[in-house]
Amino acid sequence: MKKIRLLLYVSIVALLTFPLAACSQSPTTIKVAEVTRSIFYAPQYVALEKGFFEDEGLDVELTTTWGGDKTMTTLLSDGADIALVGSETSIYVYARGASDPVINVAQLTQTDGTFLVAREEQPEFKWEDLNGSTFLGQRKGGMPQMVGEYVLKEQGIDPKEDLTLIQNVDFANIPNAFASGTGDYVQLFEPTASIFEREGKGHIVASFGEESGHVPYTVFMTKNSFLEENPEEMEKFTRAIYKAQQWVQDHSAGEIADVIQPYFEDTELDLIETVVDRYKSQGSYAEDPVLDKEEWSNLKPIMEEAGELPADVDHKTLVNTKIAEDVMK
């Protein structure tokens, strides 16, 4: 009788614990390659720190790959499942006849993130002041360089004729080159621009983001094959990003700075807050992950003006809005 009771007890325990074991599945690992580490990508770090990815059953492994070409190479070689990089890279890959094109899924930033920094203080700065100057620009073919040239042309400045344009400095070395004396003006991301201003190495005189309007500047993208094989994971990932975007919109620059500080340990908290406020004020952080047709259409003339548009690719060819639209419902 005791044996029967024992067997019944063991059976009941097994039945009760089996559903719990089945429900507590280990999270799915998603490898993400970001083009650079920047406060410009604050919503991504919010999603990580606030546990929005964990809530979706995802374990996100973030790697910084320092440059658009390196980021895309990492994605195409399966070193990452998702890349955070400019949309122009997906057009470059498509134009080369890729059998597995890269699809834009969730937009993170919607303006340029660079600022024009002058070596001398210019409280009455006008864009025409660049005429005859030496301008230290960004890498040829990248979004910062293309937007930079587009804005200059919109201001009546021919970057090839009206100033000396330097574009042969590696992305990571541009700040050091300017600090060492190269150029009268430089195009810089934050927080470097604000750090230079604090240290007296330069002065922010204009924002390329304010001048360029909305463009799909940085977007989470993945290979079409990964998207087809992992639709649920991509939906969960995009939902977490959307939660972070909403959180950023609803909280102050100071609160955002507190959350993302672990990703910028060498940057003072008040400086992070200043940068977040600057980006937030000019509408750089996308409010939702949808990359719409209008923004895609704004991208192509910028690339064309820079002589970097290899093909006129339709929005529907390289952009998936369904996932973003579904998670917003």
TrEMBL record:
Q: Organism classification, top ranks?
A: Bacteria, Bacillati, Bacillota, Bacilli, Bacillales
What does the UniProt entry say about where the protein is found?
Periplasm
- SUPFAM superfamilies membership: Periplasmic binding protein-like II
Q: Which family does it belong to?
A: Belongs to the bacterial solute-binding protein SsuA/TauA family.
The GO cellular component terms are: periplasmic space
In terms of one coarse class, where is the protein primarily found?
periplasm
Task: Name the keywords, alphabetized.
Answer: Signal
Provide the leader sequence positions.
Answer: 1-22
Name recorded for this polypeptide: SsuA/THI5-like domain-containing protein
